[in-house]
Write a structure and sequence with these properties.
- The chain has 459 residues and is an alpha+beta fold.
- The protein has three domains: 5-16 and 170-321, no CATH class; 20-165, Beta Polymerase, domain 2 (2-Layer Sandwich), CATH 3.30.460.90; 332-456, Sandwich (Immunoglobulin-like), CATH 2.60.40.
- Helix content is 39%, strand content 24%.
- The chain has 16 helices and 16 strands.
- The strands form three sheets. Strands 1, 2, 3, 4, 5, 6 and 7 form a seven-stranded mixed beta sheet that branches. It has a five-stranded mixed beta sheet with strand order 8-16-15-12-13. A four-stranded antiparallel beta sheet has the order 10-9-11-14.
- Helix 7 (182-194) packs across helix 8 (206-216), helix 7 (182-194) crosses helix 9 (224-241) and helix 9 packs across helix 10.
- The longest helix has 29 residues, at 20-48.
- The relative contact order is 0.10.
- Mean pLDDT is 88; it is low at 313-323.
Amino acid sequence: MYDCSKEFNKFYRTKVVLPEKEKNELRKKRKLNIKRLKDGLLEYNEEKRKEYKIAEERIQGSMAMHTITQNDENDYDIDVGIVFESDNLNDLGPLATRNMVADALERKTKQFAEEPDVKTSCVRLKYISTGYHVDFAVFKRYKEYSWDDEYTYEHAGSEWSVRHIKALEEWFNDEIKNKGNDLRKVIRLSKMFCKSRDSWKNMPSGLIQTIVCNEKLTTTYSRLDEIFYYTMKAIVNRLNFYLEVEAPVDNGRALVTREVDYQRMRNWKSRLESNLQNLEVLFDEECTYKDAINAWRTFFNHSYWEELELSAISKRFSENKLQDFNDTEEFIEDLYPIHEQYDVTIDCKISGNGFSVMPILDYLDKFAPRFKKFIPHNFSIKCRIGSTNCPSYDKVLWKVINVGTEAERRNDIRGQIQDRGKEITENSSFLGEHYIECYLINNGVCVAIGHIDVPIGGN
């Protein structure tokens, strides 16, 4: 198979993986809308003379498993699990509970173009202008016996049904531990393919793709382009044989049951099969760099490959110019399994040039407009763990990355993930949209990620 791994890896990292800044925006929207729900619930209780209270909130779906991808239409799905105590709900039915959640949300989201949408499996809140949507899956919990260590959870769907609320993410992390992070990469690439055409509206969910990619992951190759290609081939063979998919948790409940579900699976098979045929040129002994780039362009239908092709860069030139600096950035998903189930903030304070110590956000709001929302050079930047709902963690890791042409020119992007304790000190050395992240590690798993932008301007 023609070796296009450098270009393929860069495509994955720069065009498929959601940038850290956008991930942080999703976290902010998740926290904001949970607060809206809680505030709305207080108002609902006061008006209706009720005492409903959220006992637990959980990050779910692609955000929890870190398989979310870039999407030109910004159609980001933020999944949140909202849990009530069963006794608190009394005998409230699943639909009535979802309606109660929607009522509480609507009170604090009147600025939205659409009211919260009560679906069978969740309550959906849409950001019409940006394409974001937040899905609140509603649960109740109880202990069958007072001495039980674990709660039993039931999901408010068409009826109350037992669900293991943590099981899916735990299953996925076990698979990542066993098979490596290539599994997460292949899932992201598969999701990228499935939404690569505007006309492809009827494709399988991210969960189904995750399960099938895990089932058919090919591990006999070392290059990501080969791993992805042969996994997709195996998936086509599997779908030619059978279309059914079962959840790896919840007693193997069927995920393909309706005719629309089967049609989505058939669409996946036929579209994947026909587009894999376009990659056959990669196995031709006379395949050129341009042929290979064009084949991947056709497969993913993405401008990244089109730009490479249209610029007519030779393979040799591409290899020489692909990196003009040492790309030292590390990624937490390559070092630890991720189960981002808690929140953590970074308490960042700056000082320098006659300014006393103050929180970075206060500085940017009060003083930075005169500096075009940037921090000047030669400031001291101190960061430590701020607020977190994580009950315990073994260690804190930090990542400081310099972003922009100046960092690349100086060959100083940094980005290594290091154990530096609970507090770090940096200096504003040169211009760029830099950022700092912290990772809370518990029992060998990353359970919380904090992020803060550190924009640095000129003197």
